Inverse folding.
């Protein structure tokens, strides 16, 4: 049974930093790519960042490029999202997701498309407010 658990929720002020952690169990994380997504009220789930199995390929949404950094430690079955220079518009519930991305390949989706992933965490709230 694949389970993902996000941690690191918080309330921070604009320009501050927050780090999220995604711990995966039930699979060997080194065999899977991981994506981070976010969703705020009234908006669709948005792809934030992606990291391939060996960290060889990394993607960021334009809205977070240069501010967020994704990384992974396969020995700990963990993926991290370091968020710097946070803005109020970064406020959302953040989710991590994983899977073998067969759907992505079959339907020619992108790694930042939520439909590419099979397994999801329950989400963690990030609020950026002064």
């Amino acid at each position: 049974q694949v389970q993902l658990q996000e941690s690191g929720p918080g309330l921070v002020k604009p320009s501050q930093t927050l780090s999220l952690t995604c711990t995966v169990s039930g699979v060997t994380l080194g065999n899977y790519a991981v994506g981070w997504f976010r969703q705020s009220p009234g908006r669709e789930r948005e792809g934030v960042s992606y990291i391939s199995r060996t960290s060889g390929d990394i993607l960021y949404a334009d809205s977070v490029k240069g501010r967020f950094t994704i990384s992974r430690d396969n020995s700990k079955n963990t993926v991290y999202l370091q968020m710097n220079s946070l803005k109020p518009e970064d406020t959302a519930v953040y989710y991590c997701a994983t899977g073998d991305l067969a759907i992505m390949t079959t339907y020619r989706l992108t790694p930042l498309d939520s439909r590419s992933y099979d397994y999801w965490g329950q989400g963690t709230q990030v609020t950026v407010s002064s």
In short: The first helix runs from residue 102 to 107. The helical segments are 102-107. The first strand starts at residue 3 and ends at 7. The chain has a mean pLDDT of 94.
